[in-house]
Design a protein that fits this description.
Elements (H helix, E strand, L loop, with lengths): L2 E5 L6 H17 L7 E5 L5 E2 L11 E3 L4 E5 L12 E3 L5 H4 L5 E4 L4 E10 L2 E6 L3 E3 L4 E3 L12 H13 L3 E4 L5 H11 L7 E6 L2 H5 L1 H7 L2 E5 H7 L2 H18 L3 E4 L14 H13 L3 E3 L2 H4 L4 H17 L3 H10 L5 H16 L13
Parallel strand pairs: 1-2, 2-12, 5-6, 12-13, 13-14, 14-15, 15-16
Antiparallel strand pairs: 3-11, 4-10, 5-9, 7-8, 7-11, 8-9
Helix pairs in contact: 4-6, 6-8, 7-8, 9-11
């Protein structure tokens, strides 16, 4: 394991994160030989959520396929969601959507089709599948460009906390362009200028602007969870391979994440598909593969880390580094530093060197 990530959600106070970070650092310092484990802070990012169910009910309200529901941004209904009216907290919703567009609620469990834009704050939609509606559920608008700020008020507070705690990197959620990365750097300020920004690519806007995002970021994460709701599922693997290849060419670290060993949340062993997914990400050229729910809420966190480690080692044993280097060369223009690094890597391979020592001015 090389890093640990904390997700900044409303349900956890800063004190909880602070104690967790301290506990990790204490454990790392006791390890022999001493390990190097980075600490990452995962921001909430720009998001759209539903309101509260009417009456504050904790039980999901059943939605019936084919029935009509009114989606509104009118604050009068933020605590009055029902099977007839659904509040969303994005004021420009009616401006960015058109008829036939889809709205996904609750990690894609509910699908609504837009039938009509009634006015600036109301839309008439059709429920496309039967499901239960709860309070404060996430919302995705596949194929729709949204204009939410890259850094929310909550993000600003979280970033200040990250700087104070000396985290090593920020996982910036829903980055759509280079300007979003710049906003986060501005929030980190002079004190946090050493903190690396890993941009999470989660929607079509991020995919379209991937070149400028890679250039502005210290690294990139292929965040397949929300991406799988924002673009067709069959295009996720294409996006994954494209982003990894572009990061390899640019010499920027790239992480592949989400549901890599999802079945191990409840099972001690992965599925055969998962046992292929992880090595294939490595063979694509990913520098890192990441566990999330598997270790955050799963029944077998240690087994998950061990399994992923074994799968990665298996892939690395058959990784063709010479072919990989040649593919990067063939992709196009590279910097002088990149050519020097390639020459050093090739020399190390030929002579069977055990390690490559790089003399650096700043360590980055």
């Amino acid at each position: 394991m090389k890093f640990l990530s904390w997700t900044c959600q409303q349900i956890f106070a800063f004190q909880y994160h602070k104690k967790s970070i301290e506990k990790v650092r204490e454990s790392v310092n006791k390890m022999q030989p001493k390990a190097i484990i980075a600490i990452a802070l995962d921001t909430k990012g720009p998001e759209i959520r539903t309101g509260m169910l009417e009456g504050g009910s904790n039980k999901d309200i059943p939605l019936k396929k084919g029935e009509t529901i009114r989606v509104t941004t009118n604050d009068e209904f933020k605590d009055k969601c029902s099977d007839k009216v659904l509040y969303l907290d994005y004021k420009n919703l009616a401006k960015v959507l058109q008829p036939e567009k889809l709205i996904y609620i609750g990690d894609g469990l509910i699908c609504l089709r837009v039938d009509k834009i009634d006015d600036d704050s109301n839309l008439t939609c059709t429920i496309m599948n039967e499901a239960g509606l709860g309070s404060k559920k996430s919302c995705n608008l596949p194929g729709t460009d949204i204009d939410l700020p890259a850094v929310s008020k909550k993000d600003e507070e979280d970033l200040k906390f990250g700087v104070a705690e000396g985290v090593d990197m920020i996982f910036a959620s829903f980055i759509r362009n280079a300007a979003g990365v710049s906003e986060i750097r501005k929030c980190l300020g002079e004190e946090g200028k050493h903190i690396l920004i890993i941009s999470k690519i989660e929607n079509m806007q991020g995919i379209k602007n991937i070149d400028e995002i890679i250039e502005a970021s210290d690294g990139v994460m292929v965040a397949r969870g929300d991406m799988g709701q924002e673009i067709p599922l069959y295009e996720v693997v294409v996006a994954q391979k494209m982003i990894i290849a572009k990061c390899n060419q640019a010499g920027k670290p790239v992480i592949c994440a989400t549901q890599m060993l999802e079945s191990m949340v409840k099972c001690p062993r992965p599925t055969r598909a998962e046992a292929s997914d992880v090595p294939n990400a490595v063979l694509d050229g990913a520098d890192c593969v990441m566990l999330s729910g598997e270790t955050a809420k799963g029944d077998y966190p240690v087994e998950c880390v061990s399994t992923m480690n074994n799968l990665c080692r298996s892939a690395e044993n058959i990784f063709n580094y010479d072919q990989h280097a040649q593919e990067i060369k063939n992709m196009g223009k590279s910097s002088q530093q990149a050519f020097l690094a390639m020459a050093a890597a090739q020399t190390a391979t030929i002579c069977g060197a055990s390690a490559v020592v790089v003399v650096s001015e700043d360590g980055r």
